[in-house]
Amino acid sequence: MAEPSSAESPRAVLRKLWDELTDAVDARYARVYNTAHEYELDEAILHKRLGMGIVHEVSDSGTMRVLFRTGFEELEMGIPSDDEA
Predict the structure, then answer these.
(1) What are phi and psi of 10, to 5 degrees?
(2) Mean pLDDT throughout 73-78?
(3) What is the tens place of the pLDDT at every residue in 9-49?
(4) Which of 55, 62, 54 lies closest to 23, judged by CA?
(5) Closest CA to 46 of 29, 59, 58
(6) For 42-65, how does the pLDDT look when each residue is reduced to its tens digit (9 = 90+)?
(7) What HEC string does 18-79 produce?
(8) Which of 35, 1, 36 lies closest to 18 in space, CA to CA?
(9) What distance in Å separates the CA atoms of residue 5 and residue 8, rounded to the nearest whole number?
(10) Edge-to-edge, what's the strand order for the sheet holding 31-32?
């Protein structure tokens, strides 16, 4: 990954990262986001409102940080559904 220049805006840096991470991803194979599922680092997901995203960080506390075209979002994961509780 190329180092960002000091002249690049944060939005431009995020867009460049998004382009690099999604360049070889086929959205047809991304998993549909569901709070009950567990996700892995670098996994492609599909969110009904935010679109395709790439899992950037996974925490032990049941959250993940996902890069979408519009920027990073923190999402919950591994939450048992009512059917499993």
Answers:
(1) -55, -40
(2) 96
(3) 988 998 898 889 888 888 889 999 999 999 999 999 999 99
(4) 54
(5) 29
(6) 999 999 999 999 999 999 999 999
(7) HHHHHCCCCHHHCEECCCCCCCCCCCEEEECCCEEEEEEEECCCCEEEEEECCEEEEEECCC
(8) 1
(9) 6
(10) 31-32, 44-47, 51-58, 63-68, 71-76
Please report, as a single letter, which amino acid is at residue 10.
Answer: P
- What residue ranges define each of the domains in the chain, with the CATH number in brackets? 26-85 (2.30.30)
36 touches 84 (CB < 8 A): yes
